[in-house]
Design a protein that fits this description.
The structure holds 2 protein chains of 2 kinds. By secondary structure, chain A is mainly alpha-helical. Helix content of chain A is 64%, strand content 3%. The longest helix of chain A is centred in the N-terminal third of the chain and has 28 residues. By secondary structure, chain B is α+β, with helices and mostly antiparallel strands. Chain B is built from 5 helices and 6 strands; from the N terminus they run αβαβαββββαα. In chain B, strands 1-6-5-4-3-2 form a 6-stranded antiparallel beta sheet, sandwiched between helices. In chain B, a hairpin with a 5-residue loop joins β5 and β6. The longest helix of chain B is centred in the C-terminal third of the chain and has 29 residues. The radius of gyration of chain B is 21 Å and the shape is globular. At the A-B interface, α1, β1, α3 and α5 of A face α1, α2, β2, β3 and β5 of B.
């Protein structure tokens, strides 16, 4: 961009960009492990965690109570997170700020990679779009349809794909590109 | 060069997929119900919807506005169908993350036991301190209107704050059971 390329940066700037990209990579990996242990990374696991709690006892509209015998096996034996609306609000605000800042800093580095404008614009948009689809998908799963839990997985995947492409192109430009005069 | 680049890409492709909040889950729902309703042979689920008057009376006493939808109790009974107790799950969404507890109540409405089911990474050290001090066992035998156990820790400490949060949840559970189960049975 404007004649500045990552490959032409001084060593200190290259080290800064590299360590930032590595740090975000480690953070993303830790977040993936956290998500897979606390909630699960399949649409059904996300649905179980986010979808509205449906009545178990068959209480009909207008009734004030209902009861039925159950098997303990009907209760989840997995120590899984159960996200209700207040937690969704907390999660949304922290993640929208955090992930957008990460996407912004990744994008800032990536802007100095010499690449054609169309693919560059598409790649730089991926982490932002992924964040919006991820968090938007959580709300859609809770309030529109449990089947939209697939959006949460899609959003997380887009974010990760954006990170991978940005980091790969940037690292290549930082350390492997041969400068031509 | 291309090979090196491909290896780099593969290494970085690992952190794919979703991202959710960092909670600490201490017990599954099934573990909580089976532990707190020990001695039960049969289990039942009862769901109750509070009337506006019932909601108002709970809010007046605790400041907590119960859900308009429904509240769930898991009931345990012995072989002779005598009630062993009921368990309900309640959550408070504090600024540092949610705290979810399971509260067991005996048929007379007194607290049988309580367990923390979920905290967050941030709140866990404070909540763990309470668990280690046996704070949760201090609720046994109290009813919805009894004074809650003395605060845990010094006045402004975080464990003391979370002790108050847990006390509030236990009181809500006891009041919910009293209102939606005991009072209805007697009316």
């Amino acid at each position: 961009m404007n004649g500045i390329h990552l490959s032409r940066l001084p060593l200190s700037a290259k080290v800064f960009c590299t360590l930032f990209l590595l740090g975000i990579g480690c953070g993303t990996l830790a977040a993936f492990v956290q998500a897979s242990t606390a909630v699960g990374v399949s649409p059904s696991a996300v649905r179980a965690s986010l979808a509205p709690d449906l009545p178990m006892a068959g209480m009909r509209h207008g009734e004030t109570s209902a009861e039925r015998e159950m098997d303990l096996g009907e209760l989840s034996n997995a120590a899984k997170v159960w996200m209700r609306t207040p937690l969704l609000i907390q999660t949304s605000h922290t993640h929208l700020f955090g992930q957008t800042l990460i996407a912004g800093l990744l994008g800032l580095i990536f802007l100095f990679v010499p690449l054609r404008e169309a693919p560059k614009a598409a790649i730089v948009a991926l982490p932002f779009v992924g964040t919006l689809v991820d968090i938007g998908g959580m709300w859609a799963t809770r309030f529109v349809s449990p089947s939209l839990s697939v959006l949460v997985i899609a959003g997380g995947t887009l974010f990760a794909l954006g990170y991978v492409l940005i980091a790969a192109f940037s690292m290549h430009d930082l350390w492997l590109r041969k400068e031509t005069a | 060069m291309t090979r090196r680049f491909a290896i780099l890409l593969c290494a970085m492709a690992a952190p794919a997929l979703a991202h959710v909040t960092p909670p600490v889950v201490l017990l599954s729902d099934r573990e909580a119900v089976s532990t707190l309703l020990g001695g039960s042979k049969r289990y039942f689920v009862r769901e109750v919807r509070l009337t506006p008057a019932e909601r108002q009376s709970i809010e007046k006493e605790t400041g907590w506005a119960p859900d308009e939808d429904f509240h769930r109790f898991y009931l345990g009974r012995d072989e002779q169908q005598h009630e062993v107790g009921a368990v309900t799950f309640l959550t408070d969404y504090t600024i540092h993350g949610p705290v979810r507890v399971a509260v067991a109540l005996s048929p007379d409405g007194k607290v049988k036991g309580a367990a923390v089911i979920e905290a967050s990474e941030e709140t866990y050290p404070w909540v763990k301190k309470l668990i280690d001090q046996g704070f949760l066992s201090r609720f046994a035998g109290l009813d919805a209107h009894a004074p809650m156990p003395p605060r845990a820790g010094s006045g402004t400490s975080m464990p003391a704050f979370y002790g108050d949060v847990i006390s509030g949840l236990v009181r809500r559970a006891a009041l919910l059971y009293e209102t939606a189960v005991l009072k209805r049975a007697h009316s």
